[in-house]
Write a structure and sequence with these properties.
There is one protein chain. By secondary structure, the chain is α+β, with helices and mostly antiparallel strands. Helices cover about 35% and strands about 20% of the residues. The chain is built from eleven helices and 13 strands. A seven-stranded antiparallel beta sheet has the order 9-6-5-4-3-12-13, with helices on both faces. Strands 1-2-11-10-7-8 form a six-stranded antiparallel beta sheet. β7 and β8 form a beta hairpin. It is globular. About 40% of the residues are buried.
């Protein structure tokens, strides 16, 4: 299968939203899912290259397509544009999950999404930039799939009483433990922590899949970047067990990582809830195809069907003339896949006319909610498509 990824309006908007400036330390509780997301830059780093996201996609018109996704990416330090790699990976994974919603196999669905993200990052950086990924996907039937690539971790934590790492670190040390049962203890040997595979490496990656146990129909799990789980194991477990709620777990782990020196970015996603409540959260309330996102500072909604109707310049999301806010360096040049698009004079005139029309529509629609407007846009687009179909049928 060809996983080379064409940038779409949806993945562009997601990446742009993920790239906005955030505080040095931020935590957000999502009460609807009994979840919390948090991240900190730490004390020694000038840039936070971690990205955390909770996503809900609901499509009332395609049975089995809706999902919840909790995902964490840790951009690779020492390589190119770690934060940008994390943003590309998450945006492509989400867009690919939506595009692949015609399959009932959740594992194949997220596997293909990760391969698409790997191709997109590699296409951009040619193996010189990358990111880890740990994620949990829940579909509307209540099926739960956990997956990781790199050294970001997934912990199973039934009722927050017993914490068990279920993911395997894709490091040399992790491979030794997995293949030979050897657990290296000499932390002075730096090559043991080297990443064996990551999103953006190119051909040959193999995502690892895991089973999350439900206790009497209830799930509880953690996603962490290495800055959070490098605490001493006993301290890490005690912090979680004595916290009580997802928000408090995230707050204490983030704070503890800073107390232990804050040498790296640290990020945590904590989730605890009934499987039935996750299924209920995927029931449509607007009648529209909607993707909702949460990170450590806020949330946003994207009305997917209306975005499919928009034109898009493929290079826009990876604009290369913009300087990095954190370092002031130019990003690397566009790859051969990023074709430049220069609008014609006619296109510009149409755009100007469209803007005038849009101003008039805005005046007319003043006072309507975002949801009402989005549903109206979708309805108009559907009606236009039906009319065109009737006209073509009558002309034939």
């Amino acid at each position: 299968m060809n996983y080379l990824h064409n940038i779409t309006p949806l993945s562009s908007q997601i990446a742009t939203w993920l790239s906005r400036a955030i505080p040095k330390t931020s935590i957000l509780a999502v009460e609807e899912f009994s979840a919390a997301l948090g991240t900190t830059t730490g004390e020694d780093r000038s840039e936070n290259q971690d990205r955390v996201v909770a996503a809900r996609y609901v499509d009332p018109n395609r049975r089995g397509s809706s999902f919840l996704l909790f995902a964490l990416c840790d951009g690779m330090g020492g390589m190119l544009d770690g934060a940008k790699c994390a943003e590309i990976a998450l945006s492509v994974v989400l867009e690919s999950l939506i595009a692949g919603s015609n399959t009932d196999d959740s594992q194949s669905r997220i596997r293909n999404a990760i391969f698409s993200a790997n191709a997109a990052v590699n296409q951009r950086y040619n193996g010189r930039g990358g990111t880890t990924l740990s994620a949990v996907l829940i579909n509307e039937q209540g099926s739960v799939i956990a997956v990781s690539i790199g050294d970001s971790r997934i912990y199973d934590a039934p009722n927050w009483k017993r914490i068990r790492q279920i993911s395997v670190d894709d490091t040399i040390a992790g491979e030794l433990q997995r293949l030979r049962g050897i657990k290296p203890t000499d932390s002075s040997v730096d090559y043991l922590d080297r990443i064996a595979q990551y999103v953006g490496l190119g051909t040959g990656i193999e995502p690892r899949f895991y089973i999350l146990r439900s206790d009497m129909g209830k799930l509880a799990f953690l996603l962490t970047s290495d800055g959070a789980h490098l605490l001493p194991p006993q301290t890490f477990e005690q912090v979680i067990i004595n916290a009580g709620t997802p928000r408090e777990i995230v707050r204490r782990l983030i704070t503890s990582s800073l107390w232990y020196g804050g040498r790296d970015n640290a990020s945590v996603i904590a989730v605890s809830g009934e499987v039935s409540s996750f299924k209920s959260a995927l029931q449509s309330t607007t009648g529209a195809e909607v993707l909702e996102l949460w990170d450590s500072t806020g949330n946003s909604a994207f009305f997917v069907e209306s975005m499919r109707l928009r034109t898009f310049a493929p290079h826009a999301v990876f604009e290369t003339t913009k300087k990095s806010e954190s370092h002031g360096k130019h990003l690397s040049p566009p790859s051969k896949y990023e074709k430049r698009h220069v609008p014609s004079k006619r296109y510009e005139r149409k755009t100007y006319a469209a803007r005038k029309k849009e101003a008039a529509e805005n005046k007319k629609n003043k006072g309507k909610t975002q949801t009402e407007l989005a549903i109206e846009v979708v309805s108009v687009a559907r009606k236009k498509g039906d009319d065109e179909g009737k006209n073509s049928g009558s002309s034939s």
